[in-house]
Amino acid sequence: MNMDLMTNLMPASPEIFLLVMTCVILIADSLIKQSGRLITYMLVQLTLMVCALITVGTHQNGVAHVFHNMFVDDLMSDVLKLLTYLSVSMMLVYSRQYLTVRDLFSGEFMVLTLFATLGMMVMISANHFITLYLGLELLSLSLYAAVALQRDSAIATEAAMKYFILGALASGLLLYGMSMLYGATGSLQLDAVSRSIHSGTANNTLLVFGLVFVVSGLAFKLGVVPFHMWLPDVYHGAPTAMTMLIGSAPKLAAFAFVSRLLVTGLQPLVQHWSGMLIILAIASMALGNITAIAQTNLKRMLAYSTIAHMGFLLLGFISGDQEGYGSAMFYAVVYVLMTLGSFGMIMMLSRVGFEADNLSDFKGLNQRSPWLAFLMLLLMFSMAGVPPTVGFYAKFSVLNAVVQSGHVWLAVVAVLFSLIGAFYYLRIVKLMYFDAPESHEPIIFGQDTTLLMSLNGVGLLLLGLLPGTLMSVCAVSVQQSLLLH
Amino acid sequence: MFLGLPVISVAIWLPILFGILVLATGDDKNAPLARALALVGSVLGFLVTIPLYTGFMRDTSAMQFVEMHNWITRFNIHYHVGVDGISVLFILLTSFFTPIVVLAGWRVIEKRVAQYMAAFLIMSGIMIGVFAALDAILFYVFWEAMLIPMFLIIGVWGGANRVYAAVKFFLYTLLGSLLMLVAFIYLYNHSGGSFEILEFQQVAIPINAQILIFIAFFFAFAVKVPMFPVHTWLPDAHVEAPTGGSVILAAIMLKMGAYGFLRLSIPIVPDASHRLAGVMIALSLIAVVYIGLVALTQTDMKKLVAYSSISHMGFVTLGLFIFNDYGMEGALLQMISHGFVSGALFLCIGVLYDRMHSRNIADYGGVANTMPVFAAFFMLFAMANVGLPGTSGFVGEFMVVLGTVRTNFWYAFAAASTLIFGAAYTLWMYKRVIFGAVANEHVAKLADITLREKSIFAILVIAVLGMGLYPLPFSEILHVSVNDLLVHAARSKLP
To answer: Which of A14, A254, A403, A408 could form a disulfide with B185 if both were Cys (CB 3.0 to 4.6 A apart)?
Structure first.
């Protein structure tokens, strides 16, 4: 019996381990003085590493369900979890120095980060409306608190407030939609919902009504137009480390969330939701790219660029086949790598009492530090989707899925908005290379950050030269995990 | 393959490798090392492309020196390169110009030397990649990647209005290429999952799709050529770019647009090409005549040569879209010749600009008195730009006019007017800059060209005169490929 329980829990072991370790760290940290905070940091990194080992170690072929089918462990979840650990761990390396000089490098931050990670993992592995919701809330609540961590900053508090209120509203919409779907199908479990809709016994009006609410909730969480209002303020207001936390790994979880909900659960309604996604995607690409041009603050600009990128990512879903989902996953992974690098760059250029988040702070970077300027150039061209960086292949694979599904016009619209997008990424390159620097303050940073930033930037180039492996990994994990009925 | 070496890959990656090495020399303390490395890299880069000429089989239009490796298996994308008679000459032209550009920037570029030299070396490799790529995505990657170094070259080392010019250049070209990407993806799905350009050339396509694909390609290539009315980025880019940038732009990059028409538009969508040939011819003639007139009114030397380039490239597109062997071969020869001549003219202007820091024609006058050797070289290149028999400029223009006469006399009549306009604007500029009394004390203080500059010009003189007097080594290479392309283009690809 005990053995049975153990094997039953195996697929969820990374989550269980992470939860235990988070509690341990929470207690241990209260005994550590601020000067020894590095120990907590090392513990967190170690925890993430062990989680990765456990995830790899407990990987098995096929799909495993636990907790009465509420939780699923498949290839996609393993891949996404590994990438989540990686990106959280990178986030911590990038932000250590930034937070230390701002007195924010506290145990609370790290524990909140771990809880957020746990929330993402639950979202990634959810196979049930309740699990999905639990994961989402665990993630969101940790993030709200993280944004508010800088208590004496009015702008951060305002951001946290906005984030919280609109996030709660979105959760409400989502729950409302889920309750309708439950009413129509009589089940909360995603594959059962899908079967029930497929059999045609469910009330169609109720289903579509519920779907609208669910999609709106999703759109809120993703930050796509017209549910994007919170995103620029939160990105701008939060301390950059928190912005990075919000903007990176959660996008992987969001991908999983959308694919579990819409594909595993609501694939039979694909005609309905793909139409909605087309509208959301076009609106996001249009508003995101055009508004980003007018920004003078880099964090705000990246926020609008996120909106545009999320719109592009949604295009991967509209084809309603595995080709498309695979491309969306690839896009999400690439996007997270680019976001980590660009926010990391902002933090590297920031100093005590100075945030390098204005566009003009990048002026003449090539003269101050040619290597950093080159890395930022790679990041920006990757964001713009210019080969030979990997950002191009992300756009390429999504466009391919769009064209394959017969929407050539949509591909044309998407590339036209990318062209507009290229303009503001180009402007950063222009500032770095063509303009004279305004400040000659030396740029000081730890070796770990430099190394990571170099790996991050050059990685985008190398992945661009040889994108095949990552593409195939995404395609295969989607094929094995998102079974179409 | 040649002596067991993958010649094309070496030609692509050797300059890029040297570019990275040059970058690694760091800041301007090591400038002499950066220059030396760049020169070695570019000369080696030229030497490795010579087997492409000597080992080229003239009696076939099949791809030669082919290399094919799996690249992105998920989308069936290959690293597939090879050359035929059309592309091989451009590869040689590219590698030929790289050492010249390196030499031209030898003394003039003083800040960020390593980055400057590296940008040109890397760009050289990428441009060879464009001409050699046989896989559509590989082609696209090279095509776009080229924008990055050029953007930086114009923006970092350019003139006063460089930022505007660089951004305009980038966005104009990106617009065209993105539409081309959509066309490639459509063709991929239409051809049953292949990105091979040669496969695209065989697959049947309905006429509506052909026309849309043609338009998408048109945006990509017409911007690069550049054709009227999307030519406006070129004068800006040329004027603001440093001399080396202008040379590469005029000599190589403009040829890519025309190359794209030859390699992609005409063979992949021949029916649409035939149907829209009228439009293309009209746009070409407008470029030839109208832009020729615009060139007459220019007061800036670089702008004048830039407009002259657009006008000459109008000749090229005209030659391509009259669909006969004289026209097409003439167009190709014209491209090669224009590479030599416009490159040389920009170098001449660069020589003057380095000394006077002005491109205004009005600031000059009587340069022949102080720089007699330079004046002689400049004269020869100006004559070649006019298309004087015996220079390379004559061969291509003459053949295109001859080909056009066979199609329609009035087209030929309009096209031939460029011989007059070309003579007018080029020689008038030459007269105002070189002849007459010494205009001011700046001109009086000019020093004649140095040995380095003389040797650059001497090489180009050999090329210009050699091609003008004996074009056979050029035309024999492309003859079979052009004929087969015309045969292919005459067959309908409608399903």
So the answer is: A403
Nearest CA to B66 out of B51, B50, B48, B84 is that of B84
Domain boundaries along the sequence of chain A: 2-481
Give A48-65 pLDDT, tens digit per residue: 999 999 999 888 887 888
Find the mean pLDDT for residues A430-440: 84
Task: State the pLDDT confidence band at A244, using cuts at 50, 70 and 90.
Answer: very high
The CA radius of gyration of chain A, in Å to the nearest whole number, is: 22
CA distances B240 to A249, B236, B312, Å, are: 43, 6, 21
Residues 6+ apart with CB under 8 A from B31: B110, B113, B114
Interface of B with A (CB under 8 A): 27, 70-75, 112, 115, 137, 140-141, 144-145, 147-148, 151-152, 155-156, 162-163, 166-167, 170-171, 174-175, 178-179, 181-182, 185-186, 188-189
Which pLDDT does position A215 carry in this prediction?
92
**Nearest alpha carbon to residue B307 among B334, B322, B286, B336:** B286
Give the number of beta-carbon pairs within 8 Å between A and B. Answer: 90
DSSP letter (8 states) at residue B269? S
| Contact yes or no for B457/B373 (Cβ under 8 A) | no
Collect all residues of chain A within an 8 Å Cβ-Cβ radius of residue B152.
429, 433
Residues ≥6 apart with Cβ < 8 Å to A321: A401, A404, A405, A484
Q: State the ipTM, two decimals.
A: 0.89
Given a contact cutoff of 8 angstroms between Cβ atoms, the answer to whether B383 and B377 are in contact is no
pLDDT of A421 higher than 70: yes
Tokens representing residue B426 in the block: 């080029």
Within 419-438 of A, beta carbons closer than 8 Å to B belong to 419, 422-423, 426-427, 429-430, 433-434
- A430 CA: distance to closest CA in chain B (Å): 7
Angle at A333 between CA A329 and CA A337, to 5 degrees: 165
Structure tokens at A348: 């590297």
Q: What residues contact A271, with CB distance under 8 A and at least 6 apart?
A: none
Determine contact: A458 vs chain B, CB below 8 A.
no
Contact (Cβ atoms closer than 8 angstroms) between residue A249 and residue A117: yes
Nearest to B87 by CA among B164, B198, B178: B198
User: Which residues does residue B79 pair with via DSSP β-bridges, in sequence order?
Assistant: B69
Residue A3 has pLDDT above 60, yes or no: no
Residues B373-390 as b/e (b if ≥16 CB within 10 A, e otherwise) read ebbebbebbbbbbbbbee
List pLDDT tens digits, range A180-219.
999 998 888 888 888 888 888 888 888 999 999 999 998 9
Residue B337 predicted with pLDDT over 70: yes
Does B28 have pLDDT greater than 80?
A: no
Token pair of A482 as six digits: 């998102």
Residue B253 has pLDDT above 50, yes or no: yes
Query: How far is A80 from A75, CA to CA, in rounded Å?
Result: 9
Query: Does residue A330 carry a pLDDT above 90?
Result: yes
The helix (run of H) or strand (run of E) holding residue B81 is: strand B77-83
Taking the C-alpha atoms of residue B131 and residue B129, their distance in angstroms, rounded to an integer, is: 5
- Mean pLDDT of the region A67-74: 86
Residue A330 near chain B (CB below 8 Å): no
Q: Is A42 on the interface with B (CB under 8 A)?
A: no
Side chain identity, residue A99:
L
- pLDDT band at A1; cut points 50, 70, 90: very low
Q: How far is CA B120 from the centre of its chain?
A: 14
pLDDT of the residue at B251: 87
Write the CB contacts of B407 (distance below 8 Å, at least 6 apart in sequence): B322, B324, B327
At B65, which helix (H) or strand (E)?
Answer: strand B64-72
Among positive and negative, which fits the CA dihedral A255, A258, A263, A265?
positive
pTM of the model as a whole: 0.91
Please state the φ and ψ torsions of residue B322, each to the nearest 5 degrees: -95, -5
